[in-house]
Amino acid sequence: MSNITIYHNPNCGTSRNVLALIRNSGEEPTVIEYLKTPPTRETLVKLLADAGLSAREVLREKGTPYAELGLADPKWTDDQLLDAIGQHPILMNRPIVVTPLGTKLCRPSETVLDILPNPQRGAFNKEDGEAVVDAKGQRV
């Protein structure tokens, strides 16, 4: 059983790159497709606390009902924003990764390298071709 969990959206390039970087370290993480299986409010609160993020900092604007719900307005409390994420999980930015070394919102994708317990096992290029890790497993 893996000690790494990724809150993943397979339709998101950044999320796919992060998952591939985790696998490039030799780990097979627990993959939670959060749009199919949204985290509970309690889990979301813990993820945010562990990552040092506020509810506003985890909100995703692009491709979500963010604008139509008026979530840019500073009047919304963290509790209200958490309610909105609960009702519309697409509002949660991704991917969030949990490892023994910490919890992070991994944007850009290479930030996952900061919390992976094992080194990269070889070269890695993002889907767009950008080199992230060289053939020796070192961050570029």
UniProtKB/TrEMBL annotation:
It comes from the Bacteria. InterPro entries: Arsenate_reductase, Arsenate_reductase-like, Thioredoxin-like_sf. Gene3D superfamilies: Glutaredoxin. It catalyses: [glutaredoxin]-dithiol + arsenate + glutathione + H(+) = glutathionyl-S-S-[glutaredoxin] + arsenite + H2O. GO terms for molecular function: arsenate reductase (glutaredoxin) activity. Its EC number is 1.20.4.1. Pfam families: ArsC (PF03960). Keywords: Arsenical resistance, Oxidoreductase. PROSITE patterns: ARSC (PS51353). SUPFAM superfamilies: Thioredoxin-like. One of its GO terms (biological process) is response to arsenic-containing substance. Belongs to the ArsC family. This is Arsenate reductase. It comes from Burkholderia cenocepacia. The lineage of its organism: Bacteria, Pseudomonadati, Pseudomonadota, Betaproteobacteria, Burkholderiales.
